[in-house]
Each structure stands twice: as structure tokens, then as C-alpha cells.
């Protein structure tokens, strides 16, 4: 069903491009490419990505614009690719100072969640887990909760991992929630 919807959307975009000038057309094509990268299955997103061979330009072309891009003092980089607001994967793509792929890591795992500890800052959590799928602010508590949907396995395959920040933007606890399905 979603493949049909994607095909219809792409056809509609192509038809709408026929009335555009070159600059508008280029922007529209770029937007369409960004949309496709956002919904592209992980198998296509990661296809033929080879550490030590794949270049930064190839990564950008295949995976699209990263949500966040960090450059470190040694010249290496890390790109963050969350898979949708409630996707089950967030990929951190490490690039060496020569512009070659080092590694791609899916960071929404129990092992990474176990690294979250009391006192961590929002930035430290973001660097470890990537962009949360949901942020809830409770001003009366005061508390902010970041949440990531992830594939935890077990009885209910999907779960939600939550990080609770206090009024000083520091972690004070974590929790787990069930994914609520429609009826």
C-alpha cells in the first residue's frame, strides 16, 4: 500500500514539475529526493555502503542530508540519520578525515540505552541516541521527556525508551513505555 502511495506521489510531483522553470524544477527535484530518502527502506538506504571505500559525497547522495552533522577536531565527521519521527532506527554515520566511510551504527539499542545515566546533559544524550521521535514538556513538574520508538524484541516487538530531564536539562531517570496501537 505505501509503495503505491509513494509511486502516486512521485508521479504527481513529476507532473507538477512540467510547469516550472529550471531553478524551481531543481528545488522541486531536491525536495522530492529528500522525501524519498526519508521513506526509503533501510536496505536501500544502506545498500553498497562500504567502510574505507564509500565517500562522503556518495553517502550524502544515497542517504540524503543528515539531521545533524558534527565535525571533530581531528577532521572526522559524524552524520545523524533518524528514520522518521517514530522510526525504529537511528543511524550514526562516521566519516574519517579523508572523507571515507568508517562505520554505520544503529544506535537505538538496549546497550546504548544502558549508557544513559543520571546527570547527563541533553547534548550528551542527543550525541548518543540521536534526535528523539517525540519531546513532551511538563512545565508544572518541571520535566521534559524525550522518547524513541525502538525494536526491543520480546513479547511486544516495539517499545518506547524515555529519557526524563529535570529543569536544569539533566537526566534524572529513564523509563520504558508500550507502543499504543489503534483499534
TrEMBL record:
Upper lineage is:
Bacteria, Pseudomonadati, Pseudomonadota, Betaproteobacteria, Burkholderiales
Quote the InterPro entries the UniProt record gives.
BamE-like
Keywords associated with the record: Signal
Record protein name field: Lipoprotein SmpA/OmlA domain-containing protein
Amino acid at each position: 500500500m505505501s509503495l503505491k502511495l509513494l509511486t502516486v506521489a512521485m508521479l504527481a510531483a513529476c507532473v507538477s514539475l512540467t510547469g516550472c522553470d529550471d531553478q524551481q524544477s531543481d528545488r522541486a527535484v531536491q525536495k522530492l529526493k529528500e522525501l524519498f530518502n526519508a521513506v526509503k527502506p533501510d536496505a536501500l538506504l544502506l545498500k553498497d555502503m562500504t567502510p574505507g571505500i564509500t565517500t562522503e559525497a556518495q553517502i550524502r547522495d544515497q542517504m540524503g542530508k543528515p539531521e545533524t552533522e558534527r565535525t571533530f577536531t581531528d577532521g572526522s565527521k559524524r552524520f545523524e540519520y533518524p528514520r522518521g519521527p517514530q522510526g525504529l532506527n537511528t543511524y550514526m554515520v562516521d566519516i574519517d578525515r579523508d572523507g571515507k566511510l568508517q562505520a554505520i551504527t544503529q544506535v537505538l539499542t538496549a546497550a546504548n540505552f544502558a549508557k544513559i545515566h543520571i546527570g547527563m546533559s541533553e547534548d550528551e544524550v542527543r550525541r548518543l541516541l540521536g534526535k528523539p521521535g517525540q519531546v513532551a514538556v511538563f512545565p508544572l513538574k518541571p520535566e521534559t521527556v524525550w522518547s524513541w520508538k525502538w525494536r526491543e524484541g520480546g513479547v511486544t516487538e516495539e517499545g518506547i525508551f524515555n529519557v526524563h530531564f529535570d529543569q536544569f536539562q539533566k537526566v534524572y531517570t529513564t523509563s520504558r513505555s508500550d507502543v499504543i496501537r489503534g483499534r
